[in-house]
Amino acid sequence: MEGEEMLLVNDISKSFGGIQAVKDVNLEVKKGEIVGLIGPNGAGKTTLFNMISLFLSSSKGGVQFLGENISRETPERVVEKGLLRTFQTPVGFPKLTVLENLMVVPKQKGEGIFSTFLKRKSIVQHERENYYKVCALLEQFNLFQKRNELAENLSAAELKLLELCRQLMANPKIMLLDEPASGVNPVMLDKMVEHILRLREEGMTFLVIDHNLGFIYRICDRIYCLANGELIASGTPEEISNNERVKSVYLGVNENESA
Ligand SMILES: Nc1ncnc2c1ncn2[C@@H]1O[C@H](COP(=O)(O)OP(=O)(O)OP(=O)(O)O)[C@@H](O)[C@H]1O
User: Fold this and answer.
1) Using a 6 Å cutoff on CB, does residue 16 contact ligand 1?
2) Any stretches that span the bilayer, and where are they (predicted)?
3) Domain spanning 1-82+172-258: which CATH class is it, in words?
4) What is the pTM assigned to this prediction?
């Protein structure tokens, strides 16, 4: 249902020794929203992503996903529940082709030679369905022509799209995108915007980190701004772009100068 709470971050904090990377942050994402997370280098954005996706434990506070406290789950369980993330540097397999990168499916739990033999038919069926799904995704993201290319030969923008496709193979309910626009040229950036907006039309929800504010303002319904680990502003793109604190910390504009 539109407007339903999907992700709720409650009063979350993280310290690394003496460094307070994230301090008492509250954040929410509703179903169907595209929410941005901005802030200067070292603001705590990636640390926050790492805690939401449970790659990192929080020092304090917790995360609710679809009304359920997931703070004690493993990253794998969170993926199974539908919370997926990308990384600043796409992961994937550089020495595999584009098609192979998407066909790689995690082995089922408890799968052995005997059970695999018994389930042979269903596995073949599963592989076939997977193949059709991969081809459809590659078509949608204009990567079908590159399906036999090694991933290491793709451009930065194509790698970002491949990373999106990899996450989509796992049927996410929400996608956390870490700098999807970095290294992407303006033409491909327009394509990236189109893809993200299309996915949202189809029901996807996003939380997006990016340093490219133009990109963030184009795609986001709401934006949170972090600085020194603390939330300093939240609002619509218009509100954030006119916020004096955001200008001063993020854009390096002095509050008095910009007034
Ligand atoms: N594993 C770690 N050990 C020690 N300090 C860390 C660790 N990870 C992050 N930090 C520190 O926490 C703070 C927040 O870092 P973080 O990477 O979350 O910021 P960011 O907003 O994602 O920055 P950027 O935009 O440059 O990626 C920084 O001061 C960073 O040096």
Assistant:
1) yes
2) none
3) alpha beta
4) 0.88
